[in-house]
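agent> Task received from the user: take the single chain below, predict its 3D structure, and emit structure tokens. No templates, no multimer pairing.
agent> Plan: (1) validate residues, (2) run structure prediction, (3) serialize to tokens, (4) report one or two observations.
agent> Step 1 OK, no nonstandard residues flagged.
tool_call: predict_structure(input=
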Amino acid sequence: MWLCKVAERQMLRPSFVPPRPIRQLRDLTRYRIDLVNVRTAEKNRVEKLLEDACIKLSVVASDIFGVSGREMMAALIAGERDPAVLADMARSRMRVKIPQLQEAFTGHFDDHHRFLLGRMLSRIDGIDADIAVLDAQIEAHLVPFAQAVARLDQIPGIGPVAAAVIIAEIGVDMTRFPTAGHLASWAKFSPGIKSSAGKNKGNGSTGHGNRYLARALGEAAVGASRTDTFLGERYRRITRRRGKKKAIVATGRSTLVVIWHLLSEPDTHFHDLGAEHFDRHVSTEHKKRTHIQQLQALGYRVTLEPAA
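)
tool_result: status=success, residues=308
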């Protein structure tokens, strides 16, 4: 019985060995993601080190690794300790924060912090250089898939980097997925249902899918949320009702449906339904019910009377 169930599950999972160009592209994109994670961890160490020295640069600057922040940290390593001199290194829009920067640099940065900060920044620079070399290799490996990249780049939230990751993880041959639903299910971006005694109890976990693909789709969903598009409005609507995690899964699934169609039909181009799509297709009764529930949640008793 147990062997039969395992065999049944394996039949439901598309299993194949990707072509060599896809495998090579996958190696490159996955290594790039791992390097980005290492760089992020190193940047977090830098912020923690500065906080240990009571240097509150991250409180004032939105990105301490920008041009101004890097110049200030280089000056710290070189031996500069005067808060006024350090704050005066701010550039462009950051110069309006010079008084706050002077206060932020009033700490006790010593030789111990200086040594560690130099090593950390050197490692970040080395990782940046490695990522730049990888980007060139990825771009070269994407040449045979240029048309697929161009089609995916039309989707809100997806840029060249995300398109490369998606192609590397799912390939460009969609015949292994009979429908868009099969692709979403394989990627674990289909909603799960918990049921007991014949009653559904909401969405369950989608399970663990491809973490590299999930990361790319999650970042694409967040990126789309900043646009006035169908995917952006879908993310915002679900976030208001169910939270960000469920919004990412739902928007990621919608993105996968679009991806499947674009890769399955080479002559197909992305057409945005628009942010107003939901309002156009929601019935009057549904709108009334939604507004009534919102008012009742605020403590009002609602009575509806048709207007004359």
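agent> Step 4: summary for the user.
The longest strand covers residues 199-204.
agent> Done.
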